[in-house]
Amino acid sequence: MTVSITDVAEATGVSASTVSRALRGRPGVSEEMRARIVAAAAELGYTASRSASSLASGRTYTIGVVVPYVGRWFFGTVLDSAEKVFSAAGYDVLLYNLGSPEARKRFFTKLPIRKRVDAVLSLLIPDPEEAAALRSLDVPLATTVGGARPGFTVVGIDDRGGAESAVRHLVNLGHRRIGMISGASEPLHWTTPLDRRQGYLDVLADAGIEPDPALEADGGYTVEGGERAMTELLALRHPPTAVFAQSDEMAMGALRALRRHRLRVPEDVSVVGFDDHELSEVVGLTTVAQPVAAQGREAARLLLTWLDGPDAGPPPPVEMPIRFVLRETTAPPHTGGQR
Question: Cα(319)–Cα(316) distance, rounded to whole angstroms?
Fold first, then answer.
């Protein structure tokens, strides 16, 4: 049986017009009710009639999504949550996975997305030339990574502030030799590693701790990279008593390296991550939680809102809340503060 908008309305106890506004990202619907309606539409398998809508509007009813690593948890979670909102509103997703410099260059040179989509959700940070290429498509643009940029609506978090809260927690526990496992910003132009590193350095400066470049290691935002980086830090003549990992996946790799070296967490080394990955609670990881799925939903909603009012221009940027989550991987250092 074909599921109608009336079926979704009956399932959620609201009017069909409310369902329509919610699925199209229009105002006048609370976020709680919008989430209920989107979930009900997805569960029932409802999609708007694309043929009738296309004839009336001239739209393709397709949203382009460009990602650097579709298989990584953060990007996959954002994509999944955004796709559910798009699908419930009657849109398909056209996905481009640009995980290599070659794929990225080819995409921005040829722009195969042109005239095939009504809007673009970019989960990578374009350089100035790439941003100009996306703006030349003359469609609404949104992103969930990096800071504000002309022509885009941005949904994100305070990466610098989140890193500050993580490192300040370690300083308040009494740690003075604090390592950091990060990821390089090149070649994908990420600002996240730079912002989180600056938060780390700011807290060290406030605490009167001289930064030591030897205490910074590149973990590539993967579990394997985090394990490798932690092993490098442990090989130092004076290893850290605590480590801030810029992502939970790298923190999990660090935990694996510490376990392999028969070091106890947090008695020997404290570890704090960033993201609140779905497995972080399982391993008891102290971390900075960001609402990853909610960022995808909000970016999708803003794109749909922009599509319904293109003359108004991009909606203002949205900063999603973050929070510090205390679990079992942090504690004061050994007596004396350094090993």
Answer: 10
User: 153 by DSSP, 3-state: which?
Assistant: strand
Q: Residue 327 — φ and ψ, nearest 5°?
A: -125, -135
Pairing mode of beta strands 323-325, 178-182: unpaired
Cut 0.90: pTM above it: no
For residue 117, the Cα-to-chain-centroid distance in whole angstroms is: 23
Quick one: which H or E segment has residue 328? none
Tokens 């393709």 sit on residue = 60
What residues of the chain score a pLDDT lower than 50? Answer: 51-52, 54-57, 187, 336-339
Burial class (CB in 10 A: 0-12, 13-18, 19+), 225: buried
β partners of residue 245: 181
* Residue 296, amino acid: G
> Is residue 274 helix, strand or coil?
coil
Rounded-to-integer distance, Cα 338 and Cα 164, Å: 21
Scanning the chain, the segments in alpha helix (DSSP H) are 5-12, 16-23, 31-44, 50-57, 73-88, 101-110, 128-135, 159-172, 192-206, 223-234, 248-260, 292-308
Q: Tens digits of per-residue pLDDT, 53-107? A: 544 446 789 999 999 888 889 999 999 999 999 998 889 999 999 988 899 999 9
